[in-house]
Here is the input.
Amino acid sequence: MLIALAGCHSTRDDDVAARAAAISGAMLRNHARLLHTDVAMGVCRRPQWAALREVRREEAAFVAAVESTLSGPAADHVAIAREDVDYAVRTGDMGCWTNVEPGFPAQHLEGVFSDVETLRAELRQPMTPPQHLRGVDRFSEPRGPAFRALVRAVLDSVRWQCPRYDMQPFFAVAKPAVARFQARMERSPLAAQFAIAKADIDLLELTTFYNCLAPSQSIPAAELRADLRTLSARIARAERIAGGGPAGS
Here is the structure.
């Protein structure tokens, strides 16, 4: 009996350590994703683009130099974050700066340097060493980033986030569908990729706090149908990618 209990505790400890390493990797990706988003994001008004162009070249060169010194799991996590941002740029899912005033290029450069220092601090003293990404198939873009983006969107859709309406009618259908999707993806060839995206949402859940009243008005029927269609389409597209289909199918 003592041996069995020891084995049970060992398994539980291993699970806790694996989850901590996954969250640590997600934190590193999050810092890197914020950094690359700042570098990649342009200004909304084209006449103001030139003022930022030279600064962005300097920023990109500086970030590339910093990343060239990375190796092992850290380099893998940062590379994945960079791929995610590149994919957002390619698909038009990237915002733009509206608050461009005289002196903004210098402020932008200062912000990027601050992002780099935050990333360096995480690399120097992570709460837990980030996980080794064993089994991750770094297949050709855009399939990897597209799959992770879809998984994050699917998992994020069933988080409670101060909605305008009572979302219980949506959750009653969506949560079982997402649970079935997760079970299928965890047995798929892209299980490791799925785990990366899930850890990103797990980190968001751990670090985001909402302070708002639950809405009393139920979600309108038309909006409920539209949200469920969107969720179903994302699940279907992610599963096509996991099955070897193109990212844009």
